[in-house]
Amino acid sequence: MQCEILDNNNDWIPITSLIKDDGWSEAINSIDGPNAGRNKLGTMIRDWICDKYSVNVTLKMISKTQKDLILSLIRRESFSMRYKDDADLSWTTLSVYSNGVSWKRRFTNPSGIEYFSDFTFPFIEI
After folding, report:
1. HEC profile for 99-119?
2. In which element (H, E) is residue 65 found?
3. Which domain holds residue 22?
4. How, if at all, do strands 44-45 and 48-59 pair?
5. What sign does the dihedral 69-75-77-80 (CA atoms) show?
């Protein structure tokens, strides 16, 4: 799997080397409209509008510098990301946003560099 995020300078920033081996999962989520919900009989009423594609990404152990770079790329109102499997000939590009970012502070090495693990975030299609 290859993955890149478009920065504010229109440069594609590769993050493939930072993604854990099992750190890529894909999902499709249905979006319902205002008329969805249960009626008085308890029957679920769907008001399907669309399906949204999302990818959940978990990174390997990363340094504070790498963490700050990723945060600067994904903490924007929206941005472009692209990905492709190694067998694919072309990239799939999506306009996305991200929320629910989390990580664990692991340790600081003797040189004073902080490291983080379980850095997890979604790419949610707009």
Report:
1. CCCEEEEEEECCCCCEEEEEE
2. helix 64-74
3. 2-33+51-121
4. unpaired
5. positive
Q: Quick: pLDDT tens for 64-123.
A: 999 999 999 999 999 999 999 888 889 999 999 999 999 999 999 999 999 999 999 999
The predicted pLDDT at position 88 comes to 85
User: How many helices (H) does the chain have, and how many strands (E)?
Assistant: 1, 11
Tokens representing residue 79 in the block: 């941005």
Counted domains in the chain: 1
Task: Tell me, yes or no, if the pTM score tops 0.90.
Answer: no
Closest CA to 66 of 28, 27, 124, 14: 14
Is 115 contained in some domain? Answer: yes
CB atoms within 10 A of CB 51: 11
